[in-house]
């Protein structure tokens, strides 16, 4: 993630998950997306990969 456009794309796909996502925090400089959710991590990663960016789970 290198720009606000990338961050907006991530927000857009994650927001489509609805009430299962309670918080989305994006730090473009650190290239990090933090998501509070009841969904499994694999589901979040698959959703983020729809933006065309590579993703990995940190914790």
TrEMBL record:
Domain (HMA) ranges: 1-56
SUPFAM superfamilies hit by this protein: HMA, heavy metal-associated domain
KW Transport (keyword) present: yes
Protein species of origin: Elaeophora elaphi
Gene3D superfamilies: 3.30.70.100
UniProt subunit comment: Homodimer. Interacts with ATP7B. Interacts with ATP7A. Interacts (via dimer form) with SLC31A1 (via C-terminal domain); this interaction improves ATOX1 stability and controls intracellular Cu(I) levels.
Identification of the protein by name: Copper transport protein ATOX1
Keywords: Chaperone, Copper, Copper transport, Ion transport, Metal-binding, Transport
Lineage of the organism: Eukaryota, Metazoa, Ecdysozoa, Nematoda, Chromadorea
Family membership: Belongs to the ATX1 family.
Any one Gene Ontology BP term: copper ion transport
Cellular component GO terms, alphabetical: cytosol
């Amino acid at each position: 993630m290198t720009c606000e456009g990338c961050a907006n794309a991530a927000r857009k796909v994650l927001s489509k998950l609805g009430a299962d996502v309670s918080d989305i925090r994006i730090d473009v400089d650190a290239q990090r997306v933090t998501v509070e959710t009841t969904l499994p991590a694999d589901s979040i990663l698959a959703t983020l990969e729809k933006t065309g960016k590579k993703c990995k789970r940190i914790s």
